[in-house]
TrEMBL record:
One of its GO terms (molecular function) is transferase activity, transferring alkyl or aryl (other than methyl) groups. Belongs to the cysteine synthase/cystathionine beta-synthase family. This is Cystathionine beta-synthase. Pfam families: PALP.
């Protein structure tokens, strides 16, 4: 018999899939690391399990404990699955700009969900960062995960995602392109790949309203760069410890409209039903066209599944309301 002992053992070893139509004008091959094949339908299952196992090993997370995290949904899903299998209670603190589907999904896997306002400063007591921290001081035997600064986040990608991409491309990968939020994916994968071949270029995809690109280029944390945006999962108004700016060769920013339109195009032109940050990632990759040449093998990572966006980027009324389609 061939089987996994529990659902957590099915995390990782996701396929690499060639893009054929959207990338037809590029000189190079583009391969997508297709993370929706994880059991929680996102790349975040990897780091969620790593963070929990490292917390168990260090003794911060004890049997019967409560796991608390501020999460846009995918990390919460990964943590919730692991909490169910391992017998912990899970509390997710989420911002109100996230899709309703994400909240419903977290509840479906047994998580308690607190919804907080988006348009407040990170240090405001109502923000989801502050609320998660406060709950962790109030609830006994609880552990605040803090994916932004938790080194197990990037470590998961250094230990699994990076080696998988290296092996699947037979060491031929020349560029890695990925959306940046907490920075765990770009930093962990980027570090591993550059250790194998220092010539590999790593590009981060950022969004308008986020501080990353300007900070990378100038070293200035410019508050004028911060304003509300629609794109989900990428960009930040803080500098998470998990973003290793030295590993990243450059950032390109994608507009909310382009990210939403390309999320639809991935589904309609490649049969890839994916989340909003995948739309941003592929559009960002196309913006980098001049950096690629004939023999390059460009790997782009797609973080999560389209089902979480049926009320938004896959809803034409919503798209029209936003002015993204006619
Ligand atoms: N896309 C989606 C849908 C995400 O949930 C996240 C995590 N915030 C990212 C991209 C960015 O990944 P990372 O946090 O590893 O930088």
């Amino acid at each position: 018999m061939e089987y996994a002992n529990n659902i957590l053992e099915t995390i990782g070893n996701t396929p690499l899939v060639k893009l054929n139509k959207l990338t037809a004008d590029l000189p190079c091959m583009v391969l997508a690391k297709y993370e929706t094949f994880n059991p929680g339908n996102s790349v975040k299952d990897r780091m969620a399990l790593q963070m929990i196992e490292d917390a168990e090993a260090s003794g911060i997370l004890k049997p019967g404990g409560t796991i608390i995290e501020g999460t846009s949904g995918n990390t919460g899903m990964g943590l919730a699955l692991a909490a169910v299998v391992k017998g912990y209670k899970m509390i997710c603190v989420i911002s109100d700009k996230q899709s309703k589907e994400k909240v419903d999904i977290l509840k479906a896997v047994g998580s308690e969900v607190h919804v907080c306002p988006t348009d407040v400063a990170p240090d405001d007591p109502r923000s989801y960062y502050s609320t998660a921290r406060r709950l962790s001081t109030e609830i006994p035997n609880s552990w605040y995960v803090n994916q932004y600064d938790n080194p197990s986040n990037a470590k998961a990608h250094y230990l699994s995602t990076g080696p998988e991409i290296w092996k699947q491309t037979g060491g031929k990968v020349t560029h890695f392109v990925v959306g940046v939020g907490t920075g765990g994916t770009v930093s962990g994968v980027g570090k591993y790949l550059k250790e194998q071949n220092p010539n590999i270029k790593v590009w981060g995809i950022d969004t308008y309203g986020s501080v990353f690109k300007k900070y990378h280029e100038t070293g200035i944390f410019d508050e004028k760069e911060i304003y509300p945006y629609v794109t989900e999962g990428i960009g930040e108004d803080i500098l998470p410890k998990n973003v290793d700016f030295d590993i990243i060769d450059g950032f390109t920013k994608v507009t909310d409209k382009d990210a939403a339109v390309y999320t639809q195009r991935l589904a309609k032109e490649e049969g890839m039903f994916l989340g909003n940050s995948a739309g941003a990632a592929i559009k960002g990759l196309l913006q980098l066209k001049d950096h690629f040449s004939k023999d390059d093998v460009v790997v782009v990572l797609f973080h999560d599944h389209g089902s979480r966006y049926v009320g938004k980027m896959f809803n034409d009324d919503w798209m029209r309301e936003k002015g993204y389609i006619d």
